[in-house]
Structures are given as C-alpha cells and as structure tokens.
Amino acid sequence: MKTFPFLLACFTAVLGFASGLSAAEPAADTRVFELRTYTATPGNLDKVLARFRDHTLEIFARHGMENIAYWVPADAKDGAGEKLVYLIAHKSRDAATANWAAFRADPEWKAVSAASEANGKIVAKTESVFIAATDFSPMPRAGVAPGAPRVFELRTYTTPEGKLAALDARFRGRERALFTNAGMGHFGYFHPLDADKGAGHTLVYVLVHANRDAATESWKKFRADPEWIALKAETEKDGSLTTKTESVFLTPVDFSPTK
C-alpha cells in the first residue's frame, strides 16, 4: 500500500514548512514606551514608593502595562528624595489610552488611592513622555543583570532644527560602539512621539554603569578617545548636533523589575 508513505511524506512536508515559519525573523517590536516622573509632596516620597511597591505595579500589569524599570534620582539637583522616575510599555498608543482608562476605573486602585491620600495628596506633579525605540536601540526588557544593582544614566539631547537625523546617524554608526569600548552598557535609545515633548529634535537614552565611579571613569575614557574626537569633529563640521545635553543619574528602587 502506498497510502501510508504518501501521508507520511505530506506530514513531513507540512512540518518542514511550519519549522520554516518558526525560524523566520520575529515580528518587529512595536511597543510604545512611557517615561513618567512623579514629584512627591514634601516628605511623602516613601508613601509614593510604598503605594507602587504594594499595589500599583500589580494593578498596572492587570491592565496591560508592562513594568520595566523604576528609579529614584541619585542627586539632589535632579530631585533625589522627592522624585520617582519609571518606564512602562504598552502594545500601542491606543492601547496606552485604554490601559490608563481601565487603571483609573479599577475599584482596587480607587480604594488604594483614597487610603494613601487620607491625610492629603502624596503626589504634587506627574509628567509623562511617550517615546518609541529608535532603530538602533536594544529593546528594553525587565531583568536583573549580574552585578546588580547598577547605576543608570538618563540622557536627553536636544538638537538644532533638522539635525536629529545626523545625530541618529552618529549613534547608529560608531558612537554606541565607543560607549561600549569605554565600559558603558546600553539600555535603550528613544525619540519622543509628541511635538510638545520634543518630537523631531530630541534623543532620549539610558546608559548603564557598574557604579557611579565607573561612570566617571567611562566618560573620561570616552571623551579622551582619539576616535571619538575625530568622529565628533567630522560630524560637526557644519555646527554642533546638540543645543542642550541633560544627564540624570538614577538608582533602581527595591521593587524595580530592572536592576
């Protein structure tokens, strides 16, 4: 009988086709990230942190938000002792709108919020920036790396009009490799999505250092690197690619999924 060999051959072919599909390149990561900063009312940062630790992260996850990293600034000039900075992800911008609506309507959140603010507001100011990963960015995922807790550095570059593409090209090319050579790690590179938050002329990125002293040494090594000096000169023959550079050192909190 030829039926069984014929069926076996067909089945093998189907398996081969399915294997080919599974080996294909994974779909592009289309997540939308949200970088949020909360400023606590005087003396209430611990209460804000406790609310996130005990309740908020779990409720976020319930409503489709991916908890990635939670930090506090390391320096007083950047809000140490009064600010919480965190990064979450949504499947899309529309999903973000739906996620926040569901979160705010959640009975548990309403009860937690009311209980935590029985003696007054604990958050004085909330800031949110929607950002998308650049094509040269590693895709941020929650995780505790060897050597954790590490120090993270949030950097924001503002460019002159029309210069963002040139800045991106420099990062896409050699600048990130020179960071690596100097001992820095890469967490993510992003562009704001909204015009009022810097879309079209802002690059936001997060570097990783073993500790604060290591960060100092890495930047010293990077800035003295002859290849960086030559690259900067070559790419800025027609003027600087940045008009403003901001740096904030961040320390992961105990409940951060990333350390």
Structure, explained:
It contains seven helices and eight strands; from the N terminus they run H-E-H-E-E-H-H-E-E-H-E-E-H-H-E. With 259 residues, it is of the alpha+beta class. The chain has two domains: 32-132, Alpha-Beta Plaits, CATH 3.30.70.100; 133-252, Alpha-Beta Plaits (2-Layer Sandwich). It has an eight-stranded antiparallel beta barrel, surrounded by four helices. Helix 2 (45-62) runs antiparallel to helix 4 (107-116) and helix 5 packs antiparallel against helix 7. The radius of gyration is 23 Å and the shape is globular. The relative contact order is 0.17. The model is unreliable at 1-26 (pLDDT under 50).
What key phrases describe this protein's structure?
eight-stranded antiparallel beta barrel, 259 residues, disordered N terminus, Alpha-Beta Plaits
Fraction in beta strands = 25-35%
- What's the helix-strand series? HEHEEHHEEHEEHHE
* Helicity, as a percent range: 25-40%
Q: How far is it from the N-terminal to the C-terminal residue, by CA?
A: 63 Å
Biggest pleated-sheet summary:
8 strands, antiparallel, barrel
Number of DSSP helical runs: 7
